Amino acid sequence: MVYEYSGYLKAILSAPDEAQRDQTDHIAFGPDDLAHWTTTDLPAFTEWLRIPVSRSRTDHAVELKGKFEDVRRIDYLASDEPTYWVPLGTLGVRDDRFPIDLNRFPILEITCRCTSQNARLACAWAYPGGLAFDAMHSTQQWRTIARKIQHNGFPAQLDALILRLYSTVRATESAEIREVRFRAMTPREADACEHDAARLECSAPPPRAEVLDEFVPLGVFVDAQMAQQLAQTMGISVSEYWQLLFEDVVRHHQNCVAIENAERFTREDWKEMHAAALEYGVRFVPLYGMPLADDPALLRDTVDELVRANADVPGLLAWGISTEPREQDLPKLLQVRDLVYKADPRHPFVITTRNPGKLGLLAPHFAAVGVNHFHSRNSWGVQEVVETHLNLSRGQQFWVVAPGFVWGSGAPEWSTCPELRLMVNSAFAAGGRGFFTYLFHNVPIWIGGSCQRTLTGPFLTFSDLWQELDQRMERINAMAPLILGARPEPIPEGAYTMTLRSEEKAQLPNGVPLTTASRLRGDGYNLFFLVSHDIRGMASINLSINPDFVEHLEIYDLSDFIQDRRWERMPLDRHLEMFPGQAHVFLIAPPDTCRHFRDVVAHRLMEDDRRQLAINMRLARQYSIDVSPVEEFLEEPRGGDTLEKLSLTDWARDRLLDLIYENPEISDARSRIIEVSAALCACDGALCRLHSLGKTERARELGLKVLPIARELAHMRLELRHGRGKLVLDQTRGLSVRALELVNEIRAQT
Predict the structure, then answer these.
(1) Overall pTM > 0.90
(2) CB within 8 A of 269, min separation 6: which ones?
(3) Is the pLDDT score of 638 beyond 90?
(4) In a 3-state reduction of DSSP, which class is residue 59?
């Protein structure tokens, strides 16, 4: 029997002491127990559904078998990233030994082996407010794999354990599990962990980054390699691609872009990306697939090449790693972190992970941490995830990365607009200080890409989620200074009363309330978040604030102010009709403080409006539109108080839009471009469907007919920006017809 460590233990100990291990207190689940576990996984995951699975008792173990033959999507997914699995776990099992007290039994041991050629094993465990998972060393030799699943006292308990058998090919795969054991640490393990904890505590904490006290990142993930591929696919330069991308980001009220695989940038690529980001006032976070090498010299050279040379570039927000951090890589991650700070002491080093269970170990060492919440149909879980993990970090910011993509496997499922709205609102209501959506763009899956849907698709067009983010980000950006200055605190008992009523078609999981109320407390003010968790119907609410709670204070609805630009004191009793996933944010503070933050929010709105105005002014000048009234306002805003200036900014924004749409060269050409874009989106969706049916060659053949239309559309968008709308209008007359005919041709194949 091979006995080996995984995860954190692998980083601090060379080999286990089996004699000591056998003497520890433990809870063991043998073959008889495992035979009663279920083949059910968490409902937030869908990849395991519809795969035939069986479990059977053997002489000394339980065999788990999955029949993956009919999963056609496996054929075009990366073999080194197994996606489909069958589970064996404790969900739905009545066992008095659960939940497991991890303060007593922090070590998880699994004795298992794979019994087919392509089988891969992993395990996942649920705890209050989160989920962790880890791949196991999958061989056909019996082995016991031990890992520490509690770090720095987190989590305190384990509610469920799920073993997963993965496959990378369409075949029947199997594995045997002999025992699952939770045990106490051996003296040797306890000493090693204590020594390492002392070492980590002595290491320098992440230095405070001023930028994270001033800026709430609201943005999207992009992929540097994809940008290069898509520019080529669309027949435009990489520089033009970045121009279209950053303009679109600003038009949707976002301020940040996280760039995966930034090591793919050449010096010229970096220059072009930076120029576009600077032009549109967007910050960026380069994420590198940085080698975590054992060679210190190689690490230094890598950091010097990637970081030091670009440390003074304006618009840079932070540095980060694009690969999923592993527990055993923590020493190397800290080496990289320290080298990055030595090369660039002004910008923070950040990490993101799909595995929040690691944060007890990793989070204290980084200036900002992010959790990728890529779970289908689990928008309600975001608030709990943030609340559970927020205080694990000694850093300044906690980010949520929400899904705006569908992987080649078909998961996560495409979120609805109410689901995304709820994720945004819940993240900040719980104390989050940043929000990203993954992924902005994708290479078409029918020509070798890995995603079948993203926010703007393969041709930078649009989606319903991308439009939804427009309004959400405008509101959060306006409130950013208040969010940065506040921390979650309990709401005083008796501060309010509330009666609720939902529609019959309300969609809420068991145990999820119709609404949640939360409080962020700042210096002399409170933010009160009221969030509707119903993602299908309206929530009818009667809210009554206790006068004693707000004595000498005033209440304003910041959500209404941002939307309507009217500053009106809120009464203590108010009726609200909240649409799915909506949030109201109330400012509660003394009158002078309220007026101060009124002006802060108003100035943030005006700054955002001016960014939109600047883009539209450039367009208007290309068409020699008389914009002198708007120019005069921009040069020297008229008006007295802040609200009057805000009203004038609204007027300037609306007036400029009127002037633009009164010009037929612009308005008619834009209408045609939207028609073609919609048809291209439909083509891409139909091709993805054809591809998922296993008709990959036919999808590629038809896709080759789509690409010329996409290229023509990209050039027309650029022509429109450069003042040649009349030419665009002439060119698009037949393009939308061709695109619609192609949609029908593709759909006929499905």
Answers:
(1) yes
(2) 224, 228, 238
(3) no
(4) coil
Residues 56 and 111 placed together within one structural domain of the fold = yes
Structure confidence at residue 292 (pLDDT) = 66
Peptide bond into 345 cis (omega under 30): no
Q: Nearest to residue 253, comparing CAs of 634, 604, 646, 633? A: 604
Could you tell me which residues are beta bridge partners of residue 436?
219, 401
Position 604 in a domain: no
Percent of the chain surpassing pLDDT 70: 99
- Asked if 185 contacts 24 with a C-beta cutoff of 8 angstroms, the reply is yes
Residues 6+ apart with CB under 8 A from 247: 280, 615
Kindly state the DSSP code that residue 60 receives in the 8-state scheme: S
Q: Is residue 607 in a domain?
A: no
- CA-angle at 713, arms to 710 and 715, nearest 5°: 110
Count Cα neighbours of 274 within 13 Å in the Cβ-side half-sphere: 17
Residue 347 lies in a domain: yes
User: What is the model's pLDDT at position 636?
Assistant: 65
Q: What is the pLDDT averaged over residues 24-33?
A: 96
Buried b / exposed e along 70-104 (16+ C-beta atoms within 10 A): ebebbebbeeeebbbbbbbbbbeeeeeeebbebee
For residues 348 and 209, give the distance between their C-alpha atoms in angstroms, rounded to a whole number: 6
Closest C-alpha among 84, 113, 87 to residue 171: 84
Taking a C-beta distance cutoff of 8 angstroms, is the pair 180, 109 a contact?
Answer: yes
Residues paired with residue 350 on neighbouring β-strands, in sequence order = 320, 368
Distance CA(519)–CA(585), nearest Å, equals 10
Predicted confidence band of residue 17 (pLDDT cuts 50, 70, 90): confident
Let me know whether 417 and 272 are in one domain.
yes
- 521 falls in which pLDDT band (50, 70, 90)? very high
Q: Kindly state whether residues 556 and 461 are assigned to the same domain.
A: no
Q: DSSP assignment, residue 38?
A: B
Q: Are 443 and 233 in contact (CB under 8 A)?
A: yes
What percentage of the chain has pLDDT greater than the value 90? 80
Answer yes or no: are the C-beta atoms of 64 and 174 closer than 8 Å: yes
Please return the burial class of 201, using the count of CB atoms within 10 Å of its CB with bins 0-12, 13-18 and 19+: exposed
- Looking at the predicted structure, is the pLDDT value of residue 637 above 60? no
Burial profile 533-569: b = 16 or more Cβ within 10 angstroms, e = fewer? bbbebbbebebebeeebbeebbbbbbbbbbeeeebee
DSSP 394-423: SSSEEEEEEE--EETTS-SPPPPHHHHHHH
* 611 three-class SS: helix
Q: What is the pLDDT of residue 507?
A: 76
pLDDT of residue 604: 96
Element (H, E) at 287: strand 283-288
Taking 60 as the threshold, does the pLDDT of residue 288 lie above it?
yes
Report how many domains make up the chain.
4
Out of 484, 511, 528, a domain closes at 484
Between CA 463 and CA 437 the distance in angstroms is 13
User: Could you tell me the residue range of the domain that residue 168 belongs to?
Assistant: 2-198
pLDDT tens profile 545-598 = 999 999 999 999 999 999 999 999 999 999 999 999 999 999 999 999 999 999
- Residue range 82-117, pLDDT digits in tens: 899 999 999 999 999 999 999 999 999 999 999 999
Q: Average model confidence (pLDDT) for the chain?
A: 93
